[in-house]
Design goal:
By secondary structure, the protein is α/β, with parallel strands linked by helices. It has helices spanning 2-32, 36-51, 60-84, 116-141, 146-151, 156-179, 201-228, 245-260, 264-269, 271-277, 281-292, 294-297, 301-318, 390-400, 439-453, 537-568, 577-620, 633-638, 640-648, 659-664, 679-689; strands at 104-106, 114-115, 324-330, 334-340, 352-356, 366-369, 380-386, 411-416, 428-434, 461-468, 495-501, 516-519, 649-653, 671-676, 697-699. Helix 7 (201-228) packs across helix 8 (245-260), helix 8 (245-260) packs antiparallel against helix 11 and helix 16 (537-568) runs antiparallel to helix 17.
Amino acid sequence: MASSHGEIRTVRAGIKLLLMVVFLGTLMMWIMMSTNTYFQKWLPYLRAKYNSSKFFGIQGVTLLIYTFPTLFIAVSACIYHHLGKKLNDYKLERKNIFTLWKKPMLVKGPLGIVSGIELGFSVMFIALLIWSLSNDLHNSFVHITPQSAAEKGEKVWQAKLDSTGLWLGVVGNIGLAFLFFPVARGSSVLPLFGLTSEASIKYHIWLGHIVMAFFTAHGLCYIIYWAATNNISEMVKWHKIGISNVAGEISLVSGLALWATTIPRVRRKFFEIFFYTHYLYILFVAFFLFHVGLSIAGMMLPGFYLFLVDRYLRFLQSQQRVRLVSARVLPCETVELNFSKAPGLSYNTTSIMFVNVPSISKLQWHPFTISSNSNLEPEKISMLIKSEGSWSKKLFQMLSSPSSIDRLEVSVEGPYGPASTNFLRHDTLVMVSGGSGVAPFISIIRELIFASSTIKCKTPQVILISSFKNCSDLTMLDLLLPVAGTPPDLSDLKLQIEAFVTREKQAATENSKRPQAIWFKPKATDAPITSILGPNSWLWLGAIISSSFVIFLILIGIIDTYYIYPIDHNTNMIFSSSIREFLNMLFICISIVATASAAVIWNKKQNTMEAKQIQSMEGATVGGSPDSWFYNGDTELESLPHQSVVQATNVHYGERPDLKRMLFDCQGSSVGVLVCGPKKMRHEVATICSSGQADNLHFESISFSW
């Protein structure tokens, strides 16, 4: 076993080295593409070699330079992650030179909490944009003279404005190339950098602002230019060949409408408007392609292509109603939903799952952190939902009403989470939560229980600091331990819980409400939650990406060879650019739908067999005594694991935690600090960890908030 693990690590190291070479080569191409060397030597050579081909036509160079390397990285990353699943997840991770750079460098401000690595990459990205724009403008302004402007009937400043508008659009395209990577939830690229889609949402926000700023400036430059040169009629022209102005304007207006709803105040007060307006990305991208064509828009194609693959797989998963077995209604207006899952589905701690309840809203999907653990609970997956927004309040009212329902129709997407987590490298693990922010830490504690009791690994001392508003919220701590199967052994886990009730100064009376268990009667068609692509999901994802792209290349090659080339002969002056781009978009969709559907159907057969086995097991066991999933009544209070948790818990009434003192008092050379709660709490913890007053504090940059 050790030798096979060694071979796997060697192969993974080789793949990572190869991917690094391809990534650096791609990065070098991006840096060089605004230089004279690229425009005068490399690009003419590549166009002469590939654009003259009947098979790919004018888009051959774009596919070679921008699309192929990125998709190669994505497919190779799938193999890398698949091999990683075979390794021992509990192998201690070595400390590296990047540990210091993972500490927060910026805490307060419009960017939120930003680590040193994030700040460094942000500075390099901004430098790339500045480098590209300044080089492009310099190289184009050199050729603008009074004579050249006069030949076009323009003044020098008008010619420069025309050129400035062009290059603002081109540089905005660089930001667009990265925009869709963070929102591909099942991405194989993000885990290569230790990222999840949820933690990368802030990058999507930053990039969105940059892209729209450049494209808005691009549009304004041309409107002013047309007005100054008495060519305002250009705004209503859709040229058969080349750039289509109307398409660009539709794309820009769609983007501006989407951008307006991202203003924090609008997003908070009118979240549904923000949510639905984001579907304008379809118009934004489609008309962007009509505007400039794939030969230019190909720069953003890889990221959008991977997003489309992910989005279609999510759509297929969302069509299945899942098997909701039970719910637990807590006195603090919180519900725990318990779903049946296939034993083969594994997920890491801090994973999330998107939930849709059609009886509340057919369109709304809400992310919640998974509180269960796939190692301790192989046949169940749970999540904690606090009644806060309108959607969650309706859910709580449905489940807590006296006339309880027999079945709740639910669909899910996910789970999504980090490719790996390693909290064992710390001597002490401090988890700071506020309210329902304790949910991800429940999963972590259960994982550490599994590591200490089953794997017999040395685990760090665990300190959970939880703040609650009322005494009833303390019932969320009852969920720390799994209640199904054999009671867990806590003897090897050093657990300390400091609970703070901020709005009440004494314990609640004895007649307080107790959690209420609700059991549902799922339909036979309700399936256990499974991975949409089965246990070998990474390999299937790689196969979908590669095979769909090959099919796309074959389709456009056939069309170019037997339909477009006989008409246009690669002059790009006869065949309609809009029809060409429509065919490109159509073939992309056909390729992805065909390959992804085939992969899902293939895996669905296996999933159906597992579902029947699970249902028969539930009928034989759970159906006979459903309350066996819960400790109830005196059994819960008298159970040994529960007694251990009670003994480890110190409850403080009428006060808030002194986080600075508590964190500085933590012992050990390495103290991992996680935080999940209100923005003010997150910023306070990040500030303490980045203050430099305690070198042993390591802030884990994990985001739990969309």
